[in-house]
Specification:
The chain is an all-alpha fold and about 200 residues long. Helices cover about 70% and strands about 0% of the residues.
Length: about 200
């Protein structure tokens, strides 16, 4: 079992170094912007506006669902996985740290799993789980989540397995919260129909 884990870690490091080495001056700038969470504030505002436009007064419960998914996936990734596994980020790893191409800062000491991956994939799935009236553009969020997560490898702060693990945490969080959200949403719709 230990041999399998060590082999997986070795492959993960090799793949990371190959992906991280594919850089140019202009992609450094682009990925630096993509990986910055503040870059995407307009996207989040657009999401909320789209939900309000699509669902009207019931948009609040949809927004709470999305916030819940992001909060849960971030807490599982940063509050549980990182301190539990204590796997160093590539840029903090004494084995390969000197080989890492860093675009900006390295961040905290631990990287498994990626919070960027967990929150973005959780958000993408959550929006696509919305009942009855799916947003026409929501499937594109999977591509956004992939690029956003890949930027963490490019900028030298996460291994590929950190990204995969984070994505799975996000998927779990969205599915876990979908059932109570779906119940509350149906209950809210029933109350609205009775009032009419």
């Amino acid at each position: 079992m230990n041999d399998l884990i060590q082999h997986s870690i070795s492959l993960d490091q090799t793949l990371f170094l190959w992906l991280n080495s594919k850089h140019t001056a202009w992609t450094d700038v682009a990925m630096g912007l993509i990986t910055n969470k503040f870059t995407w504030i307009p996207l989040y505002v657009f999401m909320i506006f789209s939900l309000w436009r699509q669902f009207g007064k019931t948009a609040a419960i949809h927004v709470l669902f999305l916030i819940g998914v992001v909060a849960l996936s971030d807490q599982i990734a940063s509050g549980f996985f990182k301190p539990f596994f204590m796997r160093p980020r590539p840029c903090h790893d004494p084995m390969i740290g000197s080989l890492v191409h860093l675009v900006s800062g390295c961040g905290g000491p631990f990287g498994f799993v990626s919070s960027h991956a967990s929150t973005s994939f959780g958000l993408a799935l959550a929006l696509n789980l919305l009942p009855s009236k799916p947003l026409s553009w929501s499937k594109w969020l999977y591509l956004w989540a992939f690029i956003y997560s890949y930027s963490r490898i490019y900028t030298g702060v996460h291994y590929p397995l950190d990204i995969v693990g984070g994505a799975l945490v996000g998927v779990f969080s969205a599915l876990f919260l979908y059932f109570p959200f779906s119940y509350l949403n149906k209950r809210n719709q029933s109350l609205s129909e009775r009032n009419h």
